[in-house]
Amino acid sequence: MNRILLIEDDIETAEAILAELGDRGFEMQWAGDGIDGLGRARASSPDAMIVDRMLPGMDGLTVIEALRKDQVRTPVLVLSALGAVDDRVRGLRMGGDDYLTKPFALVELVARIEALLRRPIDCRATTLQVGPLVIDLIERTARRGDRALDLLPREFRLLEYMMRRNDQLLTRAMLLEEVWNYKFVPATTNLIDVHMGRLRHKVDGLGETPLIHNVRGSGFVLRSRQ
Asked: How many helices (DSSP H) and strands (DSSP E) are in the chain?
């Protein structure tokens, strides 16, 4: 059973998160301010943390920074009403592993926590590279060689997912569940094919060696080697 520490001063938000994650089998602990949260984080060594950015006593980013200085590598999901790019970048650079803007859907919060728990504890790389493809996870930018890729948020998430699993066959069901957070596969949908077509058009330019391949009847693969 994974232990999650929630540091959130808004009682209504906290109760909703505690109930949702508790129902899904997580062992939950809650602190209503930054000072108490920092103490609980140091004492209980949770498997993951959810930290609101604006907290009484000590703000969330200061809590995270203090833990990182203590060499605590617990993955942290930052919650904030501040959604500008600069705010997200600062949250990640201060030691957060992921950033979720309020208001949010609980199902997305659960998916992000599950993803953090699957990630190796020492995996804090800010960039990913597969062949000529490079993405910056903080700035949310992507390049193929010297060419910048103008990706929409969903396209970026799709490419990141594929890059983390390069040379692995990814079925449409996997993509729907992991990138779109679908819990079931619709009987008929071309959602994946439409988005994949747009992504392939941006990633594989004219005259460039194709990196994204359609495996007929099975799914897709990002292949850096021919």
From this structure: 8, 11
184-193 long-range Cβ contacts below 8 angstroms, 24+ apart = 192/220
Please tell me whether the peptide bond between 210 and the residue prior to it is cis, using omega within 30 degrees of 0: no
> Of all helices (H) and strands (E), which one includes residue 48?
strand 48-52
> How does pLDDT run across 55-102, given as a tens digit for each residue?
999 999 999 989 888 778 889 999 988 866 677 777 777 788 888 888
Q: How far apart are CA 6 and CA 19, in angstroms?
A: 12
Q: 125 CB contacts (<8 Å, ≥6 apart)?
A: 137
Residue 26 zone, left/alpha/beta (φ > 0; ψ -120 to 50; rest): beta
Residue 216 amino acid letter: R
Integer Cα distance of 204 and 184 in angstroms: 30
- Determine how many CB atoms are found less than 10 A away from the CB of residue 151: 20
Taking Cα atoms as reference points, which of 89, 16, 23 lies closest to residue 50? Answer: 16
Strand partners, 149: 142
- Which tens digit of pLDDT belongs to each residue from 18-50? 999 999 999 999 999 999 999 999 888 789 999
State the average pLDDT for the chain.
87
Share of the chain above pLDDT 90, in %: 50
